Amino acid sequence: MINKKVNSVQEALQGIENGQTIMVGGFGLCGIPENSIAELVKKDVKDLTCISNNAGVDDFGLGLLLQKRQIKKMISSYVGENAEFERQMLSGELEVELTPQGTLAEKCRAAQAGIPAFYTPAGYGTEVAEGKEAREFNGKMHVMEEAYKADFAIVKAWKGDTAGNLIFKGTARNFNSCMAGAAKITIAEVEELVEAGTLDPNQIHIPGIFVKRIFQGEHYEKRIEQRTVRKKQS
């Protein structure tokens, strides 16, 4: 049995260098690889292109990398919770490629499946389609989108085994699932790491063949971006 376990986040992130393209799983702050992001801050790698649904918040998630100007370009679909992101984008410090959320997910999934490109109606007739091939299918125009090309994909799972098999919990499955295996090297950090053969095969969401390195993280904050509660009834 191939053992993909590494002993630390430092070992897991070996090879990440300035100027590379990195996919980062999560949706908002749900299911983000907190340990890996913190280590990227410590490594002080620069000029990164990050593919992620959003850029975290000002003081957490990918927002920590933005604070230190480590991200050169963000490819994302929603960025409304990060004031520093907005400031850098409007000032021209940060290159931004906004992508419809479904298209972003499919560009990851296509890379995962080894499909070079696909057609989608999303974005046709807008700035999203500028410079891209368009074609009609069944009377409707579609835009050709190319699969992403990334050096690393960093995903976060609830549980995994030493062979790299992953189980996600609830909505934390989000972009983690389609990003696993969508880059040259996929790194998985998990809350619980068990021996191969321990997990129920029927419960595994991502097979280990998509994962290159896996490690057990620690001290997850699992912040919530915004919490709205109903006022207590008197």
Automatic annotation (TrEMBL):
One MF term in the entry's GO annotations: CoA-transferase activity
Keyword Transferase belongs to the record: yes
Keyword tags: Transferase
InterPro entries from the UniProt entry: 3-oxoacid_CoA-transf_A, CoA_trans_fam_I, CoA_transf_BS, NagB/RpiA_transferase-like
Membrane-spanning intervals of the chain: none
Statement: the UniProt record of this protein carries the keyword Lyase: no
Protein family membership: Belongs to the 3-oxoacid CoA-transferase subunit A family.
Protein name from the UniProt record: 3-oxoacid CoA-transferase subunit A
Record organism: Flavobacterium noncentrifugens
